[in-house]
Amino acid sequence: MADGAPVPEHLTPHDLVTYFRCPFEMELLHAEHRHFVSGVPIVPMTPEHIRPLQHSPLLGPPTGGVTVVDGRLDLDEKDTLVYLDDEEGLPILFPPERIRLDPRFTTRPRNLVDATLGFAGRPDFVVEQHDGTLIPIEYKSTHLFVGFHEVHGRSFDVLQAVAECRLVEAAFGRRPPMGLVYYGDAAGGGQHEGFVQVRYGESEEHWLRYALATIRSDRERAPVPSDRTCPHCTANRMGLCSYAVSRADHPELRPWSSGPVVPAQ
Ligand code: SF4
Fold first, then answer.
1. Any domain includes 261
2. Which residues form ligand 1's pocket by a CB distance below 6 Å?
3. pLDDT of 25 over the 90 cut
4. What percent of the chain has pLDDT over 70?
């Protein structure tokens, strides 16, 4: 970045996931975080009285390089673990003798940073294969869902895996050929364990750059109320968004109606 150039808004893989679901949710969480850090209340950039959208402005990532495997994630006995997030609840994938963590990432916050794209985050695991190939793994405790949610869910898998591949490339100086999203099915005792393998090629990297540019250039960050996402939305649980509540109580305020729109609080 040239001296004096504006610093791009810091973004994370979690921001990508959130924005893809609902830009307003991401904006509310950013404002809350800045409020927490600075102690000064921060007003979200979303204009009051904005009309909700039916979809996020962010187009989904390419899904041509996705392979879904319904079964166990078997790691090669020559694979080693070189990065481990300190998040609670992660499964033990490696015996102690195959854990060789990169010392640069063993103290908090363990972030992998991409200074070029202004992007940072933490995969759950990074595995190194015997030939030096690196593969990030994102762990989900749920089962490998199929059917109704499949298309929707796979896009979230892809964008998270692609983002983590880019971070590994930036932090380790080696480009992963793919990323994995591993569904451990903790509640089902691993009965429906599975994983999604996501290629990290030129089209996926191109999409990531497009996604970061789309988010940064969006100065409205409109809400995308949805029966599926609002009940699980962190900003909603924190009481920060009036849109979901309005929709539940007043169906005429749904974004696809021509009725009045309730301003964000
Ligand atoms: S409650 Fe719904 S509309 Fe509001 S921020 Fe969350 S997902 Fe978006």
1. no
2. 22, 24-25, 28, 223-225, 229-230, 233, 235-236, 241, 243-244
3. yes
4. 87
